[in-house]
Specification:
It is a single chain. This protein has six helices and twelve strands. With 383 residues, the protein is of the alpha+beta class. The protein folds into two domains: 139 residues, Beta-Lactamase (2-Layer Sandwich); 170 residues, Histidine kinase-like ATPase, C-terminal domain (Heat Shock Protein 90, 2-Layer Sandwich). The strands form three sheets. A five-stranded antiparallel sheet has the order 2-1-5-4-3. A hairpin with a 3-residue loop joins strand 11 and strand 12. It is rod-shaped. The two termini are 51 Å apart.
Length: 383
């Protein structure tokens, strides 16, 4: 992972984690607030219910003249009965010096309800119900919310890491493709440039050009021009609609003659048979289409072999007896910067250009290849 990829990775990861943390914090705060409100209402209702129940009991016993019953309350709750002289008759006060005023309030972590519902029956002025259940429940709730938030946040970090890697993978692949493309095109340019340099130096030293020097210069120049045409098509392709039909046979013959010197250097025979055919397609793009297919056939064919080129009816075929293409790679070779093999150089754009032109002008493209035996491309032009 280079520096640019690393910055992109950690920027995405950091943004995802921070935004997720804020989102989780908001959800946690909302949940805690809602549960806290529910617990407060529950405790208030429970204390109020116990106070009213005890007050009702006192009133009934006073009316029937029966003695006061012992206080019974759930665990965690304390109840105290205060008489008209403000003395605790039964039970305990959890906090001293409580203001004896009817109401519900919270003090020092205790929820306290003071009820005057007994109306001084049996000499009881107030029923005081006290508990710290809410304090303990809120502490437990807070702990659980924090634990759940921590677990969720940990999972989000793990998911963010995986997503970041998945997000970065296409970028890494594209960067690797571009780097490989730059390396490949540098290698491709090196061969014709070196040949031109050597031929021109020899010509300057001898004072004249031999036919072989001229052929080397011509072939090298054409190789450079092919690279230029391919790069121009990739970067500045603004297809213009073709209005007139052109003679495909003549364009094909020109392309074959253009590449014949390169084939001769490799001792490869170009066997061409073509019948007349017209089609509406720009000549430059048709030449580029044929050029890439013929150039590839020459490049991947062994010396002393034959490349068979046929134009019959609406069908064009070009077949070589070269290295062939692995069946697993045949679906990928039409993608930009993808090469079927590292044999004999190339920079992985020729077949992508072929596919683009075929798609643009409705030409059906078929590939039939077997590794080690050769490759055959078939183009079917629209009738």
């Amino acid at each position: 992972m280079n520096e640019l990829e690393r910055r992109s990775f950690y920027s995405f990861l950091g943004l995802y984690i921070v935004s997720s943390l804020l989102f989780i914090s908001l959800i946690g705060f909302w949940y805690y607030t809602a549960q806290k409100q529910a617990l407060e209402n529950e405790v208030h209702y429970k204390l109020e219910h116990l106070a009213d129940k005890k007050a009702g009991e006192l009133i009934m016993r006073h009316m029937h003249g029966t003695p006061m019953a012992p206080i019974k309350v759930p665990k965690g709750i304390e109840m105290a009965l205060v008489d008209t002289s403000s003395k605790v008759v039964e039970g305990n006060l959890l906090l001293p010096n409580l203001p004896l005023k009817p109401g519900y309030f919270t003090k020092d972590g205790y929820n306290i309800l003071i009820s005057d519902a007994p109306r001084e029956h049996m000499g009881i002025a107030y029923v005081i119900v006290q508990t710290d259940m809410l304090k303990k429940a809120l502490a437990t709730l807070k702990q659980r919310v924090l634990i759940v938030m921590g677990i969720v946040f940990f999972l989000i970090i793990a998911i963010a890491w995986v997503l970041s890697r998945i997000f970065l993978r296409p970028v890494q692949q594209r960067v690797a493709q571009v780097e490989r493309f730059i390396n490949d095109i540098t290698h491709e340019l090196n061969t014709p440039i070196s040949s031109l340099s050597m031929s021109s130096e020899q010509a300057l030293k001898t004072g004249n050009c031999t036919p072989r020097m001229l052929k080397n210069i011509s072939v090298s120049t054409r190789q450079l021009y092919d690279i230029y045409r391919s790069l121009t098509y990739l970067n500045f392709n603004n297809p213009q609609p073709a209005h007139e039909a052109i003679d495909i046979k003549s364009v094909l013959e020109e392309s074959v003659e253009y590449y014949r010197p390169l084939a001769e250097i490799k001792r490869i025979t170009l066997d061409l048979k073509a019948s007349p055919l017209s089609c509406v397609i720009p000549k430059t793009e048709l030449g580029l289409l044929f050029g890439n297919l013929i150039g590839n056939a020459i490049k991947y064919s062994p010396p002393n072999s034959t490349v068979t080129i046929r134009l019959e009816g609406h069908r064009f075929t070009i077949e070589d007896s070269g290295i062939g293409i692995d069946a697993k790679k045949q679906k990928e070779i039409f993608k930009k910067f993808t090469r079927g093999t590292s044999y004999s150089g190339g920079f992985g754009v020729g077949l992508n250009i072929v596919k683009s032109i075929c798609d643009e002008y409705g030409i059906k493209l078929r590939l039939n290849s077997k590794e080690g035996e050769g490759t055959k491309f078939t183009l079917v032009f629209k009738g």
